[in-house]
């Protein structure tokens, strides 16, 4: 770990999704990470209750990943990804394809979740056009959905602060399903709420309004994370699948946070037994050691696009860093760890004690809902009058001061620890939150 420095100038960096002025007045600086813990610049240990940003699924600083990246950096630092390849990119694609539901075995590499989402939306449009249905251009997202920050992602996304500044230039022809959170019906759900499958039927209304022949794709997070953990009601995803299939509309699951074990299986699709036409992923794909993302595409979609094109490039899309050698090295090493250590199964095994610990917060001051699935939990707090978000922000800050990292969006605390967490750390995580809730107004 580097020595703490008083002299670092904070002024030049414009921090993403951050209250910059507040942060710079009271900075929180991390300097090291190992296993389940961060170390702050002033030398304190912080239990990572959020796997960084839902991404460090195997825990921090795994030597196998460090070694793979280091080896690759000295061996092949960079290879162009257009019209030329390197072996690890194909190995990594095969490795990811093997974890996807049957048929989703064509893999397009990106560098982030936002890029994966925009890539999937473009593939949907290209597919319909390749089949002579170029008029299918509408995209359907969902209220409260988060699909990153590209123009495609914020258009189908449903988080208003992310959209309003750009409202005049969002993609045309986008519509949104209603979100599934209705505390009067589904508060305190353990696992999938029993209430709410019928909300998927709203898609029929949207289709009737626009006509199926104009709609390219529906995109949802199978479990919505960034909006504050919304678990899909029993039967909801199945209904979306049935309706989209019946109308020739593609279904995209945005699995940027759910892929790679978060719900106790390789994918949420596998966990719920619902197979979409495309899956977007990032984060845990490389254990976040190197930025990486991907889209898994149904083979028939890929083939239709290739078959419809002449002899040249079939799909005019890609990134300088698609399948970057360091990313593919990190992907392969991370996947080795997940498999060798059975981390997806571990997440499944820990989901019961995790659920118990989360729901033990019921009855604490300010707590108005707890919801969970796999190694994800959301704890919703009553907002302070006139200051939405302030109470959860204070819990976050006080937990950090006591050595525990949690996340908050609005007044919901979100928990998504590395899958290597143990039961005593689960107790510490929720126990610290309980103490803090008792202290604050
Ligand atoms: C469901 C989902 N999609 C997309 C993204 C965007 O990913 P990135 O920040 O890597 O662009 C996120 C990030 O949290 C996400 O949760």
Automatic annotation (TrEMBL):
InterPro entries on file: Aminotrans_3, Aminotrans_3_PPA_site, PyrdxlP-dep_Trfase, PyrdxlP-dep_Trfase_major, PyrdxlP-dep_Trfase_small
Source organism, top-level taxon: Bacteria
Swiss-Prot/TrEMBL keywords: Aminotransferase, Pyridoxal phosphate, Transferase
Keyword Transferase: yes
Pfam families assigned to the protein according to its UniProt record, in alphabetical order: Aminotran_3
Cofactor: pyridoxal 5'-phosphate
Similarity comment text for this entry: Belongs to the class-III pyridoxal-phosphate-dependent aminotransferase family.
Full protein name: Aspartate aminotransferase family protein
